[in-house]
Design a protein that fits this description.
The chain has about 110 residues and is mainly alpha-helical. The protein has one domain: Arc Repressor Mutant, subunit A, CATH 1.10.10.10. The chain contains six helices and two strands, in the order αβααβααα. It has a two-stranded parallel ribbon. Helix 1 packs across helix 3 and helix 2 crosses helix 3. The two termini are about 20 Å apart.
Length: about 110
């Protein structure tokens, strides 16, 4: 699947809005970026994010709070470490969304400009 540059920008900007110590799901990011039902596109766009943009890809998880990568993999360990540095508790490759899930305020949503 090719990804449109404008849609990728929307996704990157939305992910950059997730505050430190909070996480969001791929589906939530798709919805907030104005791309409902495009959770897979979010994952794809994060893979193409330019290094110098510093998109906090590690704050995006599966809808059940699970890390996106297989348990024990190098990528999962990196994601887990980055989340823990921000105070997010990761147990059994999973984060409690009720505790660490990002629930943006209306003002935050209004500041997302595409």
């Amino acid at each position: 699947m090719a990804i449109n540059q404008q849609k990728a920008q929307q996704i990157w900007q939305t992910v950059c809005s997730i505050p430190k110590g909070k996480v969001a799901s791929y589906g939530q990011i798709a919805d907030l970026a104005g791309l409902p039902g495009r959770a897979r596109m979010v994952g794809k766009a994060l893979g193409y994010a330019p290094e110098d943009m510093n998109v906090p890809w590690f704050r995006v998880l599966r809808s059940n709070g699970q890390l996106a990568f297989p348990s024990g993999s190098e990528s999962a360990e990196k994601q887990k470490g980055l989340l823990q540095e921000e105070g997010v508790v990761v147990l059994n490759n999973r984060v409690k969304l009720k505790q660490f899930g990002w629930q943006p305020e209306l003002t935050e949503l209004l500041s997302l400009k595409y």
